[in-house]
Amino acid sequence: MMSITIQDIAELAKVSKGTVSRVLNGGPGVGVETRKRILKLIDELDYQPNASAQGLAAKRSNNIGVIIPHTGGYSMSTTYWPTLLTAITEKAADQDYNVLLSTARSKEDVDSAYRTILKGKRIDGLIVGAEQFGEKQWADLLLKDFPFVMVGKSMSLPHYYVDVDNVGGSRRMTEHLIDLGHQKITMLAGPEDLLSVRSRVRGFKEAMSKAHLDPERVTYTTYQTEDAEKTTLQILQKDPPTALFIAAGDLVLGALEAARKRKTTIPDQLALVSFDDHPFYPYLSPSITAVKQPIHDLGQAAVDMLFMLMNKNTPEKKQILPVEIVVRGSSKVAR
After folding, report:
1. pLDDT tens digits, one per residue of 105-131
2. Per mean pLDDT, which range of 123-132, 249-258, 261-270, 316-325 is the poorest?
3. Which residues contact 64 (CB under 8 A, 6 or more apart)?
4. Which residue, among 325, 188, 174, has the nearest Cα to 252 in the 3D structure?
5. 3-state SS string for the chain
6. pLDDT per position as a tens digit, 30-73
């Protein structure tokens, strides 16, 4: 893979390598117009002196980057991303590495997380949340021959990744509800364009079809609590199920509020289960049955895979971790 070098910048700007080096390091002795011309070339070519220049490849920064494709406010309010980040930082620290985190500026500008961490940052490798990670970023990293690992599978980008068994976990939870005698089971799913959501819907439909039940009882919504509440109210008003499979932990509070407003008792009138466990689930009344993801193990597996790539080794292309079904009080035998 070809990378942009100081020599390339110098030739395009018609100056010496020393001049380019002085501009990069903020040194004196360079005219204003020359400096502007060099900086413009650096920006247009997205030259990365610390991360991608082959001449500096042997020099380690002892930093890895983590890109979360969501805003910081949303990411840090969930259980998933802080748990994952904790595991990554612990594992990286074992190798005397620091972690640089970048989040999106807004829901509409997830590319900002990518731009921020690569421009001017000293990192040796990158862990990327696969949701909303696009072809442009993927191609750019491959062009730079830069080691990176995705958490979650991309819909269209074949690369190294770690993930959990979304399909299998969803199938098993649906089978749990079917074994309890439920036939009218509805899935409340997140945004349809996300691959993790599609995978969980697939597992639900497989189990429902195998049991000769209606596999199309799926309703999509955003991850906002207000939208989850509104959508659940519509489900309970239109064609009330005997069991509700909430396909993401972010939707649980909204669904619970909708049930409270409808005076629908759980689990007597509605069995309720979640894909994603949460530390407070055992303390709710009733406690919530959930698919528990090995988030900590997922973060550590991503670091292990990344360090193999950074050390020029070849890991397996993917690593899928199993999930656990934790049965609690919110699911019971159907009447």
Report:
1. 776 676 777 777 776 557 889 999 887
2. 123-132
3. 88, 92, 97, 98, 99, 100, 123, 124, 125, 126, 127, 303, 306
4. 188
5. CCCCCHHHHHHHHCCCHHHHHHHHCCCCCCCHHHHHHHHHHHHHCCCCCCCCCHHHCCCCCCEEEEEEEEEHHHHHHCCHHHHHHHHHHHHHHHCCCEEEEEEECCCCCCHHHHHHHHCCCCCCCEEEECCCCCHHHHHHHHHCCCCEEEECCCCCCCCCEEEECHHHHHHHHHHHHHHCCCCCEEEEECCCCCHHHHHHHHHHHHHHHHCCCCCCCEEECCCCHHHHHHHHHHHHHHCCCCEEEECCHHHHHHHHHHHHHCCCCCCCCCEEEEECCCCCHHHCCCCCEEEECCHHHHHHHHHHHHHHHHCCCCCCCEEEECCEEECCCCCCCCC
6. 888 888 888 888 777 766 655 444 434 446 778 999 988 777 77
The residues that bridge with 104 in the sheet, in sequence order, are: 71
Domains and CATH numbers, the chain: 6-47 (1.10.260.40), 63-164+296-321 (3.40.50.2300), 166-293 (3.40.50.2300)
- Token pair for 125: 């490798």
Q: Please give the residue that has the higher pLDDT: either 289 or 313.
A: 289
295 φ/ψ angles, rounded to the nearest 5 degrees: -65, -40
